[in-house]
Structure formats: C-alpha cells, structure tokens
Amino acid sequence: MKVIAAYLLAVLGGNTCPTDKDLKNILGSVGAEADDDKIQLLLSQVEGKDITELIAAGREKLASVPAGGGAVAVAAPAAGGAAAPAAEEKKEEKKVEEKEESDDDMGFSLFD
C-alpha cells in the first residue's frame, strides 16, 4: 500500500510518470523502507495507463464487493439530481441530554 500511496502522491504532485527513484524519494522522506520488487511491479502494471481510468475501474470492482455487517455499497451518481432520494432517507437523531453526576450523589468518593 505504501508504494501505491507514494505513486499517487507523485501523480498528485504533477509527475504524470513517476520513476522508481521518485517513489524511493517519497518513501524515504517519511522514513519508510522502499521495496524494489514492489515498486517495479507497480510501475510495470501502470505503465502507459491513465491513473484516473485505473481509479474508475477500481471503483467499479469495489462496488461489487460485499461489505460485512449488512452495509450496502452505493456508487456515486455521475451527474444530475440523483442524490436527492438519498437526502430524503436521512433520519433525525434524537438529542439525549446526559445528566452530570457528582461525587455527592453517589455517597462515597474514590479518593477517601
């Protein structure tokens, strides 16, 4: 993951085609160890590809992955007012006021 994060940081910084040296510099700047094999594997897999297309393809794959706990993954709408139904589903939370208790109410103190 740290190699991927370093790659994305390099691209975000304006370097559209980071090299292994660039990734090693980024990882070294935060004290992380650079694994040459992982860097070369990543660079060979993303060579000649647009990062935004790779991220979009990854999102599509993640949308089909089941999430534990009964949560449903929802893809972001492309454009338009498709987000309006989601806003209607919001539930209002009831505000619960907590009473502040003091040691006098309990009849004893932990430090006596």
Fold topology:
Elements: H1 2-12, H2 20-29, H3 36-46, H4 51-63, H5 84-88, H6 103-106
Rg for CA atoms = 25 Å
Q: Mean pLDDT score, rounded? A: 76
The number of helical runs is: 6
Q: How far is the first residue's CA from the last residue's CA? A: 53 Å
Low-confidence stretches: 85-92
Largest sheet: none
Helix % is: 40-55%
> Which structural class do the helices and strands define?
mainly alpha
The helix-strand sequence is HHHHHH
Shape: flat
Number of strands: 0
User: What portion of residues belong to β-strands?
Assistant: under 5%
Characterise this structure:
This protein has six helices and no strands. The protein is mostly helical. Helix 1 crosses helix 2. Residues 85-92 have low confidence and may be disordered.
Give me some keywords for this one.
112 residues; mainly alpha; single chain; 6 helices
Brief write-up:
This protein is mainly alpha-helical and 112 residues long. The protein has helices at residues 2-12, 20-29, 36-46, 51-63, 84-88, 103-106. The protein has six helices and no strands.
